[in-house]
Amino acid sequence: MPLPTGEVIGILGDNLRLRKSVLPLPTRVATKWTEGLDLKRGGETVLYTGLMYQLIPYIEGLVQAQIKMGDSWMAKYTGLGRRVNRMVNVSAFMARPSAEERARYDQVPINVVHLLRRAGVEFGALYEDDLYSGALAYDLGLDEVVVEHAKKVHAAFKKHGVKTVITIDPHTTTMLRSVYPKILKDYDVEVRSYLEVLAEKNTGANGNGDKTSGEVVIHDSCVFARYEGVVDEPRELLAAAGVTVRDPQNTGRQTWCCGGPVESLYPIKAAANAANRVAELRAVGTECVTMCPMCYVNLSNAAGDSMRVRDISEYLREASAS
Amino acid sequence: MTALVNPGLATELARSDEFNADACMNCGVCSAICPMGVDVEVRKLFRYVLLGMEDKVRAETESVFSCLLCKMCEENCPAGVHIAENVRTLRHHIVRTTFGLGEG
Predict the structure, then answer these.
(1) What are phi and psi of A215, to 5 degrees?
(2) Which stretches of chain A score pLDDT less than 70?
(3) Chain B within 8 Å of A269 (Cβ-Cβ)?
(4) How many CB atoms lie within 10 A of CB A97?
(5) For chain A, how many structural domains are there in total?
(6) Largest pairwise CA distance in chain A
(7) Do residue A262 and residue B72 have CB atoms under 8 angstroms apart?
(8) Residue range A101-160, pLDDT digits in tens
């Protein structure tokens, strides 16, 4: 049984309001990916993670705990848990991913740094001021909480003199690009995903197009494809990297959701949806490329050993290194 | 069987021009194409809103929050209904009126 919907939304909203993220991360964890990259602090153009890749291993731990709690006597004490969570960050104790797991997700922003540098893009980072965008809370209808949080993100941009933000994942992209302008006054930050930036530079992964780096089946992110119109860019970049792209039955603007958006409330439904999508993808290939951390984790979990799922940044980085 | 009707419900929900449940012509494309299948029937939810049947909307809370907001339905809607934003608006309403949440 799922945990009480209102209490779970309450905990996520409390965390965003009190701790600036639906699932608060220690600063050293959130900024670990920056180590050794010598990224300047702030500047007109910054790479912004919105914590999405860093958060996923923690969210996964929390979801597993939720599933166990939902089937136990603890479910009826969720309301009490919410009250305690306001004072003590309970959610942080429930999800404790291993260092290896965290490193796997940190590798994505690291890949993006190398790809952008190779394409000649100059940018900085916001380190501890790189905040969660509020995406999940916005989806859940916590509009007032999100507006207050968005003001904090906007203040961080102003503090560091940011004019252009380069995003990595689709959820942060759509929040900063399409939602913030509707809910904030005088917000005029240019927002582009790194896939768009690289595609515009027309560098792909810097010219490996004459080589064959294998064949993949592509899983478009719903948010990239239908909210932000990012469909051609990943295909162009993969082709330039020498990767042959196959499309599943539902693809591009007609892509089929991974199920991730309901995972925080109804993990069993999310898993069932992911299994359906994996069947579609498996009909075309055994190696799948994703461009969203939620798609990555949901499809990986559903696929098990039947299909290899990798983030697009891995293919592009490999091609640029060869 | 009786139903408590709030005739102003659709107006209360219409916080912006984006909310357009009244554009739905109940054709069923959204239901046919929804990855969540029978768990989410947005056209039924929108009908309840237009009829002012607030209790019926509340009774469908799990359905409202089971929507993936993936816009597969919206991409294929022949009437141009802003389905995802309409569902999000219903969530905002439930979050405030049923769960007592939403203060910034």
Answers:
(1) -130, 135
(2) 1-2, 66-95, 203-213, 322
(3) yes
(4) 17
(5) 2
(6) 60
(7) no
(8) 999 999 999 999 999 999 999 999 999 999 999 999 999 999 999 999 999 999 999 999
Joined together, the tokens standing for residue A209 give: 């197009």
Residue of chain B whose alpha carbon sits nearest to that of A222? B70
Q: ipTM for the complex?
A: 0.94
Nearest to A9 among B90, B99, B104 (CB): B99
Sequence-distant (≥ 6) Cβ neighbours of residue A158 within 8 angstroms: none
Judge if A58 and A191 occupy the same domain.
yes
Residues A169 and A220 in one domain: no
Chain B residues 4-33 within an 8 A CB cutoff of chain A: none
What lies within 8 Å, CB to CB, of A247 at 6+ separation is: A217, A218, A284
Q: What angle do CA A239, B71, A152 make, to 5 degrees?
A: 90
Residue A189 near residue A155 (C-beta atoms within 8 A): no
Last residue of a domain, one of A145, A172, A198: A198
From 3.40.50.2000, 1.10.530.10, 2.60.40.1760, 1.10.1060.10, which CATH number describes the B9-97 domain?
Answer: 1.10.1060.10
- Selecting from B36, B72, B95 the residue whose C-beta is nearest the C-beta of A9 gives B95
Q: Hey, which residues does A310 pair with through a beta bridge?
A: A289
Q: Where are the alpha helices (DSSP H) in chain B?
A: 9-13, 29-33, 42-51, 54-59, 61-66, 72-76, 83-97
* pTM of this prediction exceeds 0.90: yes
